[in-house]
């Protein structure tokens, strides 16, 4: 587990010494994080038992993660102060690739800590520019249950929330622009397509560890996807399927097969990453 945490931290920072510090810090906090999650689940279960007659599945707003996936998240969390420090001290020397990696890492971290809805929203709307209607179709496909679709207002409200959280993290480095119908987006890079390989490499690294690909066969995936269907009635039993749904969205090969199955454009045509203004204060010599 330690060596996996190390490899992830090294991927983010490209610095051995720092990767050792981050992975050991993440490991040392794992027990406490596992205990905190168990406590949260205990209280939640207690609340639920007061309404045993309720048959409606209310999906958890926060899913429970296995120890392995908690460790993966802890690496993201432990990495952040080091990123911020470097961004403040040497903002002019941080390259684009590092910032893009951090952006994707943060996006995955803040969505994965919630549920597959947020992961689908994050990837489809903050990395690619699929429309809300298209993203809704994708979410329907990974949920395999049309009754659990979210309405337009919920998508908008959650998107605004994620946008605020990304803004909190990257501050003035991200500029907000308004598009058709007043929709707010981060100002994109005109040359986003250049970074497709990097984006996929990041998503591959940030896919929940040791989760299987839920899509059988090859090529476009649509219709019934057995591994994504939840047939139980206790939402606490849905966590494992939630992690597999997250895999389907984060893992580039799976995601590509889902968008193909929905007849949507390929990710290469929809990649849209933000432009970072981190070193715009640098004065160019005349
Ligand atoms: Zn996969």
Please outline the helices and strands:
Blueprint: H1 2-13, H2 16-48, H3 67-89, H4 96-112, H5 116-126, H6 132-143, H7 152-170, E1 176-178, E2 184-186, H8 196-206, H9 239-250, H10 252-261, H11 267-270
Antiparallel strand pairs: 1-2
Helix pairs in contact: 1-2, 1-3, 2-3, 3-4, 4-5, 4-7, 4-8, 5-6, 5-7, 5-9, 9-10
Bound molecules: zinc ion.
Explained architecture:
The protein is mostly helical. It has one domain. The protein has eleven helices and two strands, in the order αααααααββαααα. The protein has helices at residues 2-13, 16-48, 67-89, 96-112, 116-126, 132-143, 152-170, 196-206, 239-250, 252-261, 267-270, and strands at residues 176-178, 184-186. β1 (176-178) and β2 (184-186) form a beta hairpin. α4 packs across α7 (152-170) and α4 packs parallel to α8 (196-206). It is globular. Mean pLDDT is 89; it is low at 47-55 and 281-286. Bound molecules: zinc ion (ZN).
The counted number of beta strands is 2
Shape: globular
Summing up helix and strand content along with how strands pair, one would put the structural category as mainly alpha
N-C termini distance: 52 Å
- Helix amount, in percent? 55-70%
Q: What share of residues are in beta strands? A: under 5%
Any idea how many domains? 1
Rg is 19 Å
Number of helices: 11
Task: Average the pLDDT over all residues and give the rounded result.
Answer: 89
In this entry the ligands are: zinc ion
């Amino acid at each position: 587990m330690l060596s996996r945490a190390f490899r992830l931290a090294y991927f983010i920072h490209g610095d051995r010494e720092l990767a050792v510090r981050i992975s050991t810090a993440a490991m040392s906090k794992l027990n406490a994080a596992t205990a905190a999650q168990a406590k949260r689940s205990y209280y939640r279960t207690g609340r639920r038992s007061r309404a045993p007659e309720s048959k409606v599945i209310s999906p958890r707003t926060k899913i429970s993660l296995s120890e392995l996936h908690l460790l993966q998240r802890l690496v993201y969390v432990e990495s952040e102060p080091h990123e911020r420090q470097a961004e403040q001290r040497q903002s002019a020397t941080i390259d684009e690739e590092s910032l893009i990696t951090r952006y994707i890492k943060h996006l995955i971290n803040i969505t994965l800590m919630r549920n597959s809805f947020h992961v689908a929203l994050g990837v489809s709307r903050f990395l690619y520019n699929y429309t809300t209607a298209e993203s809704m179709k994708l979410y329907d496909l990974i949920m395999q249950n049309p009754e659990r679709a979210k309405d337009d207002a919920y998508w908008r409200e959650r998107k605004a929330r994620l946008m605020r959280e990304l803004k909190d993290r990257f501050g003035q480095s991200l500029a907000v622009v308004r598009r058709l119908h007043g929709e707010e987006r981060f100002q994109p890079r005109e040359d986003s397509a250049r970074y497709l390989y990097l984006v996929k490499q990041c998503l591959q690294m940030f896919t929940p560890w040791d989760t299987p690909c839920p899509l059988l066969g090859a090529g476009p995936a649509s219709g019934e996807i057995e591994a994504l269907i939840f047939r139980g009635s206790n939402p606490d039993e849905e966590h494992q399927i939630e992690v597999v749904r997250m895999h389907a969205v984060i893992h580039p090969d799976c995601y590509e097969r889902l968008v193909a199955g929905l007849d949507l454009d390929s990710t290469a045509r929809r990649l849209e990453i933000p432009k970072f203004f981190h070193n715009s204060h640098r004065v160019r010599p005349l």
